[in-house]
Amino acid sequence: MEASVLIDSFADFARGKNIDRPTMIRILEDVFRTMIRKKYETDDNFDIVINADNGDLEIWRFREIVDDNSEDIWDHDKISLTEAREIEPDFEIGEEVAEEIKLEDFGRRAVMTARQTLIQKIKDLEKDILFQKYKDLVGEIIQGEVYQVLGREVLLTDGDGNELTVPKSEQIPKDRYRKGDTVRAIVHRAEMVNGNPKIMLSRTSPVFLERLFEAEVPEVYDGLITIKNVVREPGERAKVAVESYDDRIDPVGACVGMKGSRIHSIVRELQNENIDVINFTDNLELYLARALSPAKITSMKISEEKDRVSVYLKPDQVSLAIGKGGQNIKLASKLVGMEIDVFRELDGASEEDVDLEEFTDELEDWVIDELKRVGLDTAKSVLKLSTDDLVRRTDLEEETVHEVIRVLSQEFE
């Protein structure tokens, strides 16, 4: 294979992969120097001149002429006078011989190996460029197209045809994908696995929600409103604490938009995730009260270490504070960075009795429904009956009845 053919085919391949000219020249020189070292053991006294535009390649070997009987004659950068005069008859001792080495001198096998090495180096470089590109994009929103839906992940392609993955753990539970769908997500992680770049995206990360706010709310993008913290139960509920550095801007109102216009697009993107936007404050008690919204707190007691707080609420506010499946209190706890303990505060009227609906955080719905089915809709109406009566009148097991009595009795202790 001629040098021009080798270089031209490599240059075309490299340009197709968007490899710049200096990088292309560097790779070519590295491969040719490897060939030289294999044949001559060293490349110290060789110069390589490459013109990738026209496929020209020149390899020059430089050696100093020494006497035929010199002890240095076997050095890699020395040549005997007799050998030098075979190249040029009028050479003298001490002069330097510049000898051009042709690509064919390395042999057909070496040239074919060089061609394969060049292509492999471009592929490796392409992988490294892809890895570095996405490593710099971690935490940023990108868009991809679904090309394969697997059990444990969804595979996407970006605009350049590169493969991206959305693992099951990083998908919103309500997400459903079909081939050809366009998906937005943040770059969650970029890593090399067995020499290949693996780019993982996430739709469940709090950062994704933060970036969506930046995209939809100009004041957040411009830095007039700062997102202090984001906590999520992906696809279900989220709490976002925001703060404005301009007294004229209402951070909550700006994020929600007129009639919810700004937040609606975010909610739709997150499969109708319920988003509470909260005004951040350094006043811890006020921040806690806002975090537990929509429940209204009667009073609270914060531990000295400020890692735990006991909040007291009216009975009708307890279920609001806890939320469906404990979501509200769990997210509020994450938002403020404290463990939250909820207690009912009973006034004189409520001491007389408590509606069973107030125990949804401790008793399962089906248990409450069964009690109400037989006309028992308050705590004291249940406690008036014996265990045997409750078992006989309802379809509840004796063990379940004991648990119900234990929970309801604690309310009046």
Mean pLDDT: 88
Structural class: alpha+beta
Reported for the largest beta sheet, the result is:
5 strands, antiparallel
Q: What distance separates the N and C termini?
A: 94 Å
- Indicate how many domains the architecture comprises: 5
- In terms of per-residue confidence, which ranges show pLDDT below 50 for 5 or more consecutive residues? none
Strand content: 25-35%
Task: Output the CATH class name of the largest domain.
Answer: Alpha Beta
CATH architecture of the largest domain: 2-Layer Sandwich
Strand order of the largest sheet: 7-6-5-8-9
The global form is elongated
Give the beta-strand count: 15
Radius of gyration: 37 Å
CATH topology of the largest domain, by name, is N Utilization Substance Protein A, Chain:P, domain 4
Number of helices: 16
Helix content: 25-40%
Subcellular location: Cytoplasm
GO molecular function: DNA-binding transcription factor activity; RNA binding
Subunit structure: Monomer. Binds directly to the core enzyme of the DNA-dependent RNA polymerase and to nascent RNA.
InterPro entries: KH_dom (IPR004087), KH_dom-like_a/b (IPR015946), KH_NusA_2nd (IPR058582), KH_sf_prok-type (IPR009019), NA-bd_OB-fold (IPR012340), NusA_N_sf (IPR036555), S1_domain (IPR003029), TF_NusA (IPR010213)
